[in-house]
UniProtKB/TrEMBL annotation:
A cellular component term, taken from the record's GO annotations: plasma membrane
The protein's name: Polyamine aminopropyltransferase
Catalytic class of the enzyme: transferase
Assembly behavior: Homodimer or homotetramer.
Length: 519
């Protein structure tokens, strides 16, 4: 129709370069397109995990749907083999547009439509079909450039494809995500994809194209590049509007650290909300109930040396430092961006009572699991260990609620020490709560489950919002106090927190190789 219907087996391409140079250019394009394709794939997984939650499920959905779609794309590409050059050019233009805009549309769907699952599946299918169509067309092109047996051509193509995938897979977390962010990174990847695919066809195979097909490709690529450039120029305004749609109109701070997105909402002088990767972590109206219930029961008894795992917002540290006889407090926080915000933001610093200015506080920037595992003969033991970590139902946090993790925490616990753990809502997520109890017990500790009421804040963004839609906003916070002997809550503030009286669920412990927090 718009390209010569010559069979690749009977007619070679008319090139302005030597066959060897043409072959190198085709393989270089394979390399670039493979890198871009893997970036699209990782972008979908990362954004879906952030917006929808449960990274294992989202990765499985994206990968399985894309692999299935790639098979469909390979079959559909058979119809384009007699017009391989223009077919490949149009496929790359479409892939650049769909892949480059995928993150933008997913985020928009979540912000304004309240969900991104259907958009995720749609983009996985579309990108998979287009990626699957690449190899058959490139196989035809490389054989037209240089006469080569099919086995050798396949080996060369897949070698370039796999190396390109390696580069794309490494570039996404170490270059694109930290430097450009998810939206701009995807748009830039689409631009590179369009330029590489369009340049190969419009220059190397230009003599094989009819005038009509050449103008088709030029128009398509210019249109795609114009859309991507316009979206890139407007991405800042789009992010601001989407954040307001998700978090409300009073977004005051929004920063992307090397670990997560941190958002503060609310006035400088007034109640604030702290969101980490879209999940509500702190509500200024009721956080004192949560942190008092987490810290104070564990402080009954010796508490000269205290360890907080997580809690970079400084709010658990505030409660610990209220005790004048605390000699030292060590806080292990993964994200230095949260720590910096807790030190410097006027509202958050006021809320944590400027805990970071207390000379008794020593901050360690590290993953809690890795830090506990690293031997340090000078570390000693702690009278109290406070585990103020993200919800165990969030996949990256699962290892921090495992039997192995509590075993490591037990090694730094003094013989008469206590450990307090945030374990999720008792009423809304009983499976998760009782799994934490069982896991502490399996680590050789005696757990005492308790809860605090008076919760005002529910789930308002991110994966937790999906959970609230199914079960309603939680009405309590669940905790577990554990020690080597049977602990006691004591009479202090008994009205604020009390032992859980519901019938316990008999559940197995969660381990690194068999996490059990999916229920």
């Amino acid at each position: 129709m718009i390209d010569r219907p010559a069979s690749p087996e009977t007619q070679g391409a008319r090139l302005s370069v030597t066959p060897a140079t043409g072959r190198v250019l085709v393989l270089a394009t394979v390399f670039i397109c493979a890198a871009c394709g893997l970036v699209y794939e990782l972008e979908l997984v990362a954004l879906a995990s952030y917006l929808i939650g449960d990274s294992v499920t989202q990765a499985s959905v994206v990968l399985s749907v894309m692999v299935f779609a790639m098979g469909i794309g390979s079959l559909l590409a058979k119809r384009l083999r007699c017009r391989a050059a223009v077919g490949f050019g149009l496929v790359e233009a479409a892939l650049a547009l769909v892949g480059g805009c995928s993150a933008l549309v997913l985020y928009a769907s979540f912000a304004w439509l309240g969900g991104a699952r259907y958009a995720l599946v749609g983009f996985s299918l579309a990108i998979g079909v287009l990626i699957g169509a690449e190899i058959p067309l490139l196989m035809t092109l490389i054989q037209r450039v240089s006469r080569q047996d099919a086995g050798g051509a396949v080996a060369d193509l897949f070698a370039a494809d796999y190396v390109g995938a390696l580069v794309g897979g490494l570039a996404f977390p170490f270059l694109l995500l930290p430097m450009l962010g998810q939206l701009t990174g995807a748009l830039l990847t689409g631009t590179v994809n369009a330029v590489a695919g369009g340049a190969l066809v419009l220059w190397l195979f230009r003599r094989d194209l009819t005038v009509r097909s050449r103008w088709w490709l030029i128009t398509a690529n210019v249109a795609v590049l114009a859309v991507l450039a316009t979206a890139t120029a407007q991405v800042g305004d789009f992010e601001d509007a989407a954040r307001r749609a998700v978090y409300g109109a009073d977004v005051r701070v929004a920063v992307q650290t090397g670990v997560q997105e941190v958002v503060l909402t609310g006035p400088v002088r007034g109640p604030l909300d702290l969101f980490l990767d879209g999940r509500l972590r702190v509500n200024g109206l009721d956080e004192h109930r949560y942190h008092q219930a987490l810290v104070r029961p564990a402080m009954r008894g010796p508490h000269a040396r205290v360890l907080i795992l997580g809690g970079g917002d400084g709010l658990a540290a505030r409660e610990v430092l209220r005790y004048a006889d605390v000699v030292s407090l060590t806080l292990v926080e993964l994200d230095p961006g949260v720590e910096k915000l807790a030190r410097t933001d006027p509202a958050l610093a006021a809320l944590n009572a400027h805990a970071y200015q207390d000379p008794r506080l020593h901050v360690v920037t590290a993953d809690a699991f890795t830090w506990l595992r690293s031997p340090d003969p000078l570390r000693g033991t702690y009278d109290v260990v406070i585990s103020d970590l993200p919800d165990p139902g969030i996949t990256p946090s699962t290892k921090l609620y495992s039997e192995e993790f509590y075993g490591l925490a037990g090694r730094v616990l003094a013989p008469d020490g206590r450990i307090a753990v945030h374990a999720g809502a008792v009423g809304a997520r009983p499976h998760t709560f009782w799994t934490v109890v069982a896991t502490l017990r399996s680590a050789g500790l005696h757990p005492l489950p308790y809860c605090a009421t008076g919760r005002l804040s529910g789930f308002s963004a991110g994966p937790d919002r999906a959970a609230s839609g199914a079960r309603g906003a939680p009405g309590d916070w669940g905790f577990v106090l554990a020690s080597r002997t049977q602990p006691s809550l004591g009479p202090e503030r008994a009205a604020a927190w009390s032992p859980v009286v519901t019938k316990p669920l008999r559940l197995p412990a969660s381990t690194l190789v068999h996490p059990r927090y999916g229920g």
